[in-house]
Write a sequence for this structure.
RNA sequence: GCCCGCGUGGUGGAAUGGUAGACACAGGGGACUUAAAAUCCCUAGGCCGGAAGGCCGUGCCGGUUCGAGUCCGGCCGCGGGCACCA
């Protein structure tokens, strides 16, 4: 007897699909289109299980939609610019370009055997000049449309390597290579004006009903619209030009609890005071460390009393000290605040540290004014009693008090209500080689001039070295030299390249016309946009998705996308990670030594190395090379075939949650697929005669499977769809139906399994005489008549606890059901004559008797 | 520090506010086999009980409800993001 042998059959079917051109996307006005996209990978060189899971999910959707009659676009490309290629060049020599394209070739070769229904003819990498040249063209259009500008911004500066560091290269405030203490330094940088769209990006979140609620919430919080009061303190003892100090607060109702004013170390007033060595020393202290919000906000809060005073706007005789504080951000509001320690924990800690007064403005309803042990910060919607209020009722909600305070300020002319956003403009300048060159020229006469479109793409020079830190473009002998596109004089190229988020902000649009000599083509963008289903990691919930939403708007403004595509992703799904246990032993110094799962023998009791050494097991975490808790998909494919890998990553865990890779789970997946193959093999050879009752029962089970599996796939509940397929397999195997009925059932099973395990599905389909390729067969429909159940089993609860159950006709009226329930033997026994207070009958669901 | 999630048997998980534990893994028992593998069948949250059945049970504490894994408030633990990782 032959066996399920994926290594033989999988390549055969992949060839058959290629030959049939099954996955080539075609603009077909006669059919509805469906665009499914998974976030494209960074070409690290090896695919991992996370990729397998991500692309299998997309593939299930793409294959199911194709079967359901849609014209499907399912492309793949490479997010190919970025730091790892430069790091590799620094560590191992070679060129980022060779490294990157080599990795792409390797990864493509690893992805092909997965049998994904991808239109590979549309593949591109963002480091292709054909791609980034079009990006440069759009940059120029956006510059002309006023969406791009230059300003100063702070970067992480490594004073030893004399180079700019990424946040991840700053470890504990030190440069990762040099170990030098990192400083914050200002540079002139290029920015996209995403803030022009703050309001729109926020409001439009409401239209994204097929996005996860949590992603919309995270984006809304990131954009951070706030209504607050802006007003100017009158200063006492400040340098000329600083007679006023503008502050912004979202809690103007706490004005009477103010105990100090604080400004950012980067505030103009702080700069004006820097001639004082003590101030200069303090400001320098504040600029130590990296630029990340995490680092700034978790740093110890320190302050410096400038000696300057400000007059309280409600009582000019009341003066507050002005401090410089390291936790005030220049980027938000006006870079200056007033501190109200009683109602802000950060201010409370600061006031406690420096002995500043702490006075409550409001107290919980019914409480009295008393010294506070920590800041009192109730929700704004909660009613509180104002003991130091100045506007509105004595007892009101925070929201009411804020509104009253703003109108008080406006009426009395000391401030005005303003709306601010937390969202900052998008800094895209990177002082690095392996990125899209910013296509502008610095001319001594004309200033900053966009490169002429005729000269695009501005390509990266190949003759560069990475033996010295810093940007090779900056020290390239000839690349920087050019002529001004405006006046023809000698000029210099911009040496900054673009943030790689720019590359990934429009690749979805490029896939609609990947070879075009313009960024997009109207007819193609019109037909294929929007992405109907986008799939990727939750780690991209904010930045990538927000930048893409902005870029689509900017592309629309500059004529590269239709109006309907300003929200480019109709539906979003964020999948979980693939995790694995971590195995480690200790070296002579007690330092951990990690081991690959394939080098470890796992038993119920624990784990050992092959030589018997005991191994510590750490609970599952995201697969990572450094912890060696990785399973190479290539090994799994070699051992079990692609379908087993696909089936396993889709089963068990819900797709939005993490899935733990276990060897036993993979084996179980393989066993199940082997079982399906075996059943098909047996049924194909069987001549069991028809049996009316059994055949009908199997047809009903088949209809139910079609209904439930289809629902599972459509709802992104792949694990449930797979559970139903397990059930269906059990039913078919145990069924006493005739061979003809079983063949019908198994052909449908092949169709239902096709999105998940396409190779096995083709095999089963062919064995049972299916016509053509199952990949191209129309999706099965469940006969509604076979789905109808005529009776229903209802649990009976007494006081909320299940005590009995009854089976009644499906549409029996509630009053009738009630009678039967109360007459039930077990119910009577339980009630023991107690009077029934209330009886709740939820049709088709439950009966609850309250006594 | 701030924003957002998640927490259910030995394990992965299922459950429109309505029978908690579907489906699967690991386990236990059995069939087949000279034996093993493979396969097939049965069993399976915990405690008590011979059984019928009962009590307890969805991280912890409290609340809303006829009814809470699900909704609300507070806590604990784990994870994601924090604007130059992609």
């Amino acid at each position: 007897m032959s066996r399920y042998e994926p290594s033989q059959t999988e390549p055969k079917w992949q060839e058959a699909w290629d030959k049939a051109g099954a996955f080539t996307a075609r603009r077909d006005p006669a059919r509805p289109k469906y665009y499914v996209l998974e976030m494209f990978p960074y070409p690290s060189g090896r695919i991992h299980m996370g990729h397998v899971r991500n692309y299998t999910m997309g593939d299930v959707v793409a294959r199911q939609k194709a079967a359901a009659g849609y014209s499907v676009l399912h492309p793949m490309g490479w997010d190919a610019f970025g730091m790892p290629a430069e790091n590799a060049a620094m560590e191992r020599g070679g060129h980022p370009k060779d490294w990157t394209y080599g990795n792409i070739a390797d990864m493509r070769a690893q992805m092909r055997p997965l049998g994904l229904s991808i239109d590979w003819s549309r593949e591109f990498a963002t480091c292709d000049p054909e791609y980034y040249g079009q990006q440069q063209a759009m940059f120029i259009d956006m510059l002309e449309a006023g969406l791009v500008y230059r300003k100063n911004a702070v970067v992480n500066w490594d004073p030893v390597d004399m180079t700019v560091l990424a946040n991840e290269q700053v470890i504990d405030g030190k440069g990762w290579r040099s170990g030098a203490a990192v400083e914050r330094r200002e540079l002139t940088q290029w920015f996209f004006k995403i803030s022009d769209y703050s309001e729109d990006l926020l409001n439009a979140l409401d239209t994204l009903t097929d996005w996860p609620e949590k992603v919309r919430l995270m984006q809304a919080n990131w954009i951070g619209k706030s209504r607050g009061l802006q007003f100017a303190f009158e200063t006492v003892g400040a340098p000329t030009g600083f007679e006023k100090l503008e502050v912004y607060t979202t809690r103007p109702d706490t004005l009477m609890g103010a105990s100090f004013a604080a400004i950012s170390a980067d505030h103009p007033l702080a700069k004006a005071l820097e001639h004082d060595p003590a101030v200069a020393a303090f400001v320098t202290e504040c600029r130590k460390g990296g630029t990340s919000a995490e680092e700034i906000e978790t740093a110890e809060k320190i302050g410096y009393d400038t000696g300057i005073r400000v007059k309280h706007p409600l009582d000019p005789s009341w003066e507050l000290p002005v401090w410089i504080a390291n936790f005030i951000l220049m980027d938000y509001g006006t870079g200056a605040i007033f501190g109200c320690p009683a109602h802000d924990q950060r201010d409370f800690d600061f006031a406690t540290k420096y002995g500043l007064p702490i006075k409550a403005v409001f107290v919980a309803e019914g409480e009295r004014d008393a010294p506070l042990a920590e800041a009192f910060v109730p929700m704004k919607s909660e009613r509180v009693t104002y003991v130091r209020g100045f506007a509105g009722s004595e007892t009101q909600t925070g929201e009411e008090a804020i509104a009253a305070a703003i109108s008080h300020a406006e009426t009395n002319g000391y401030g005005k209500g303003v709306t601010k956003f937390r969202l900052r403009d998008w800094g895209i300048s990177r002082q690095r080689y392996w990125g899209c060159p910013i296509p502008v020229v610095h001319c001594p006469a004309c200033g900053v001039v966009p490169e002429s479109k005729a000269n695009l793409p501005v390509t990266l020079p190949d003759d560069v070295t990475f033996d010295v830190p810093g940007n090779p473009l900056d020290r390239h002998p000839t690349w920087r030299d050019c002529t001004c596109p405006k006046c023809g004089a000698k000029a210099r190229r911009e040496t900054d390249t673009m943030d790689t988020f720019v590359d990934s902000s429009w690749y979805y649009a490029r896939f609609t016309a990947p070879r075009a000599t313009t960024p997009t083509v109207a007819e193609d963008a019109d037909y294929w946009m929007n992405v109907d289903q986008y799939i990727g990691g939750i780690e991209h919930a904010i930045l990538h998705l927000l930048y893409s939403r902005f870029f689509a708007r900017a592309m629309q403004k500059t004529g590269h996308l239709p109006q309907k595509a300003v929200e480019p992703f109709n539906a979003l799904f964020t999948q979980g990670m693939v995790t694995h246990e971590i195995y480690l032993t200790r070296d002579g110094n007690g330092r951990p030594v990690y081991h690959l799962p394939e080098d470890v023998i796992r038993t119920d009791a624990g784990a050992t190395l092959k030589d018997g050494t005991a191994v510590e097991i750490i609970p599952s975490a995201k697969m990572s090379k450094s912890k060696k808790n990785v399973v190479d998909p290539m090994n799994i494919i070699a051992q079990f075939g692609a379908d087993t890998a696909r089936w396993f990553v889709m089963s068990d865990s819900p797709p939005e949650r993490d899935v733990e890779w276990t060897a036993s789970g993979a084996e179980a997946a393989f066993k199940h697929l082997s079982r399906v193959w075996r059943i098909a093999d047996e049924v194909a050879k069987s001549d069991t005669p028809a049996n009316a009752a059994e055949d009908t029962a199997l047809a009903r089970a088949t209809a139910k499977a079609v209904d439930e599996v289809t629902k599972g796939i459509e709802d992104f509940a792949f694990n449930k769809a797979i559970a139903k397929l397990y059930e269906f397999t059990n039913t078919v195997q145990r069924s006493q139906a005739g061979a003809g009925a079983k063949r019908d059932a198994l052909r449908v099973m092949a169709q239902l399994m096709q999105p998940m395990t396409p190779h096995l599905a083709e095999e089963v389909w062919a064995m049972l005489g299916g016509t053509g390729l199952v990949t191209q067969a129309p999706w099965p429909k469940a006969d509604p008549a076979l789905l109808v159940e005529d009776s229903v089993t209802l649990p009976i609860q007494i006081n909320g606890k299940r005590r009995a159950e009854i089976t009644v006709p499906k549409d029996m009226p509630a009053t009738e059901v009630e009678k039967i329930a109360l007459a039930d033997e077990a119910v009577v026994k339980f009630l023991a004559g107690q009077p029934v207070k209330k009886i709740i009958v939820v049709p088709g669901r439950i009966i609850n008797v309250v006594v």
Summary: Chain A has a mean pLDDT of 90. The CA atoms of residues 81 and 500 of chain A lie 6 Å apart. DSSP finds 26 helices and 36 strands in chain A. The longest strand of chain A covers residues 148-158.
